[in-house]
Every structure is written in structure tokens, then in C-alpha cells.
């Protein structure tokens, strides 16, 4: 069993690398001028063909780079064109992106792209714990409703709502940068214990809640906005633990400390598919 799981996990990690390689060779139609000089490696503006009639824009930071294939798979019958606009670290809250992230190549031009592409649907998936701005702790969701950052976020949803018919926002998942876990394939090859191989619900909430609560508060008056909650697929209230691997086949949910494998994305992708089918 372990030998099979080791090989499958190694295959998943190779697939993570392949996903990035695919993006590095992607094309965009219609063409936009994106300066290459000084552009960070993981900066992508791509287009994909579907069999439907709608236009979809998928935007966010590096979460997009690990989720795009699964999203395309469940929505290809709905879109004629899916456009992907993403840079590492860079959020869709463009004026709040830090200069050191060099977001001006793609991410900070999001409104420019949307004006030309006129998407029927905008899908947002992004890590919000990339800086202190969105990640300042909140005691309760009620605190987010009176939070100054949520007010700023509200303005962005208003601006994007003028450029698309619908917006679907996927809840961020936690990362493990602050508490790195050993590679699951390695642990399995060593027959090591997996008793402590999880993220505590406390750590999950500490990272995800600040940005997510602000997001939820900021869209309360956004009729075009809807959300996909994902934590119910990973966390168990009875144990206060959140899964980072599939327990029957021992398959990892993480490519690295910060991004889902296709197995991780599969946990919530049908929820997104249902929302897309309902929207367009």
C-alpha cells in the first residue's frame, strides 16, 4: 500500500511542476503587450478555448496557478474563452499590492484587461495572508463589518461589478510556511507515523479567517458577488484537525507548503462547478 501511495504522491508533485510549465508556454488571444524586461517568472496572462458561449476571467495570485486546470475541466462546456490573469503574491486588490511584488506586469492591469475582454463571469482565488494588510487578526466576523480594510475591499467589488455580470470568490486555504510539514511521499516511504500530520483548526482559522471575514463583510452589498466555502471539506470539529492528505489512498493535498495539488482542489471543485452552472 505504501509503495503505491509513494508513487502516486510523486506523480502528483510532478503534475504540480507540469502545471507551471504549461502556463510558461501559454498564449493569449487577443494579444496584450506585457513587458518582459524585469517581469517575475510566475506572471501569466493566458487564454483557453472551451465549447460553450460565455467568457470567464480567472484571477488571483499563485493559487490560480495550481487550480486553473481543475477549474477549466469543470467549466469548459460553459465558456468559449477562459482568460487567466495571475502573478505570484499579487491580489486583485491592485492598489494595495506591495511594490516589491512587481504586480504591474499583469495583476495590477486587471481592470484594463476586463474592459477589453468583457467577461460574463469573474472567478477569484487568492491567498490573502501574503501581507499584513488583509491578515491583521480579527476577534469576530462582526469586527470585520466595521473594519477599514473591508471598506477598501468593498470598493474593488463595486469596480469589478461594473466590468462583469457575476463574481465567484473561492475561500482561501491555509499554507504551511510557518510550520513546514515533511513530504508525504517521504514519510510513507519511511513508514513514519502520520498521527500529527494535519493542520490544527486553530492554525487554519488564524491564517484564513482575517482575510476571509473581511471578504465576506465586503460583499454584503454586492449583488453580483457569491462565495465558495471550502473549509468544511477539510476540517473536523470533533477533532479540531484539518486534513492535508486524503486518508483512504494517502494522497497529499499539497504541492508544497502553499498550494493545493489536484487532489486538494477536487475536494471543493464540484461546489464551484455547481456555482458556475447556476451563474452562466
Automatic annotation (TrEMBL):
GO terms for cellular component: membrane. Pfam families: SGNH. Residues 44-268 form the SGNH domain. Keywords: Coiled coil. Residues 2-29 form a coiled coil. GO terms for biological process: polysaccharide biosynthetic process. PANTHER family: ACETYLTRANSFERASE, ACYL_TRANSF_3 DOMAIN-CONTAINING PROTEIN. This is SGNH domain-containing protein.
Amino acid at each position: 500500500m505504501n509503495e503505491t501511495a509513494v508513487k502516486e504522491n510523486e506523480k502528483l508533485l510532478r503534475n504540480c511542476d507540469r502545471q507551471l510549465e504549461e502556463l510558461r508556454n501559454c498564449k493569449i488571444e487577443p494579444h496584450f503587450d506585457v513587458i518582459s524586461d524585469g517581469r517575475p517568472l510566475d506572471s501569466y496572462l493566458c487564454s483557453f478555448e472551451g465549447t460553450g458561449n460565455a467568457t470567464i476571467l480567472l484571477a488571483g495570485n499563485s493559487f490560480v496557478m495550481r487550480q486553473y486546470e481543475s477549474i477549466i475541466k469543470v467549466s469548459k462546456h460553459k465558456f468559449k474563452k477562459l482568460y487567466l490573469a495571475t502573478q505570484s503574491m499579487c491580489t486583485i486588490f491592485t492598489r494595495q499590492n506591495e511594490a516589491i511584488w512587481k504586480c504591474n506586469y499583469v495583476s495590477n492591469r486587471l481592470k484594463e484587461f476586463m474592459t477589453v475582454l468583457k467577461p460574463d463571469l469573474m472567478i477569484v482565488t487568492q491567498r490573502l495572508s501574503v501581507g499584513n494588510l488583509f491578515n491583521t487578526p480579527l476577534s469576530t466576523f462582526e469586527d470585520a463589518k466595521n473594519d477599514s480594510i473591508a471598506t477598501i475591499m468593498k470598493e474593488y467589488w463595486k469596480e469589478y461589478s461594473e466590468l462583469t455580470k457575476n463574481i465567484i470568490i473561492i475561500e482561501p486555504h491555509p499554507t504551511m510556511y510557518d510550520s513546514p510539514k515533511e513530504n508525504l511521499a517521504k514519510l510513507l516511504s519511511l513508514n513514519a507515523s502520520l498521527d500529527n500530520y494535519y493542520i490544527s483548526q486553530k492554525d487554519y482559522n488564524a491564517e484564513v479567517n482575517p482575510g476571509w471575514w473581511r471578504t465576506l463583510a465586503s460583499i454584503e452589498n454586492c449583488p453580483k458577488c457569491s462565495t465558495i466555502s471550502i473549509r468544511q471539506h477539510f476540517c473536523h470539529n470533533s477533532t479540531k484537525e484539518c486534513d492535508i492528505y486524503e486518508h483512504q489512498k494517502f494522497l497529499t493535498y499539497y504541492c508544497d507548503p502553499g498550494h493545493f495539488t489536484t487532489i486538494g482542489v477536487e475536494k471543493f471543485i464540484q461546489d464551484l462547478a455547481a456555482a458556475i452552472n447556476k451563474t452562466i
